[in-house]
Fold this sequence. Notes:
The protein has four helices and seven strands; from the N terminus they run H-E-H-H-H-E-E-E-E-E-E. By secondary structure, the chain is of the alpha+beta class. It has one domain (about 1-185). Strands 3-4-5 form a three-stranded antiparallel β-sheet, with no helix packed on it. It has a two-stranded antiparallel sheet with strand order 1-7. The radius of gyration is 17 Å and the shape is globular. It starts with about 35 loop residues before the first helix and ends with a strand.
Amino acid sequence: xxxxxxxxxxxxxxxxxxxxxxxxxxxxxxDEHDSYGEHMSSLLLDGLNRLGIEYEHKTASQTYxxxxxxxxxxxxxxxxxxxxxxxxxLTGQQxxxxxxxxxxxxxxxxxxxxxxxxxxxxxxKRLGIDVKILKLVLILSRAVxxxxxxxxxxxxxxxxxxxxLPLDGKPLTYDLKRMEKTLWTR
Length: 186
């Protein structure tokens, strides 16, 4: 699930949409889709259809709301230190050493990137989030400074970076940064 990080050149998108999920932004390109995210997904799906490729399309919102990745997300969060150490070992990047690799959608402003995950309570499957204003998002929220713990299966969000991890063979691979275009193999 992706948030709008900047307004693409030539698109008529209001600045207040920065940080919102692309699936929650009206389609600025035509009146045929419910959202900007749906419009962009339709381009991919049209190409797959033209090539005769069979797929089952699920949006990130649908995937999270149905809890299809709850167990896989749980495993990643439980093992986040190991994953962070391995990423540093392989790439030299230390950004996953001290943070959980997940941005939840703020329930107050409906934006990504305004919250940070600071803890994961494994036995309760709860994610501790801290509502902050990051330099990427300039829109202020009344909830700044609020900390809470949310049930994992009730959180929409976005992954930091990209992780392609086969977990228990459910779907075969995950591109967690591009879940808006999740394709489940048949």
